């Protein structure tokens, strides 16, 4: 129940601070951009935008929320209640994945076509959003300023955009298979015949593995750099 309460709190927090209005505007800009893209490139461009959107949303907004909550003193009353860091992290990942999923479908619809594999497409957006959100929280927990966060989160995220080079046929290496975003691109751009079972299992597996690693890292970062400093260096009362 605590996890559901935190999820609702995050959705309200995002609404109160205008996150949804910002994303309506962003999606409108994407829609305008796609109107000027030649038809032959429209599908490829839509996939690339859909790929970048949950990544950017998770990276920037998740970390921004953590820093904003810290400045507003939200963490102090939150973690003197029986709140788990696990519930906090999953609520952040869940709430932003909802926004990413809606934005991803809106962007793709603007291209004038629907995904060949809607379930794979949706899974790609959600798993990418949750991974980037957890990565962002891990970075934000270690920084006190927005400038320091924005600089470092780009450093952490840079390797994960490399599979785009293969997607655009600029450069390919089997090392991309080790990155979760290779799985993302396969799920988002599944061919008309659908993904093979092997490709589907690979994509889901690599994204889940990286999500698990990002969760562990975000949990440890948040526990050490945020929870333990609540109350100006107190020992923290949240359940780990």
Summary tags:
transmembrane; disordered C terminus; single chain; Fluoroquinolone transport system permease protein; FLQE3_permease; mainly alpha; 240 residues
Q: Can you put this structure into words, describing what you see?
A:
The protein has 240 residues and is mainly α. The chain has one domain. Helix content is 74%, strand content 0%. It has eleven helices and no strands. Helix 1 packs across helix 5 and helix 6 packs antiparallel against helix 9. The protein starts with a helix and ends in a 7-residue tail after the last helix. The C terminus is likely disordered.
Can you lay out the helices and strands and say which pair or pack?
Elements (H helix, E strand, L loop, with lengths): L1 H15 L2 H17 L3 H34 L2 H4 L6 H26 L7 H23 L5 H12 L5 H5 L12 H9 L8 H29 L4 H4 L7
Helix pairs in contact: 1-5, 2-5, 3-5, 3-6, 3-7, 3-9, 5-6, 6-7, 6-9, 6-10, 9-10
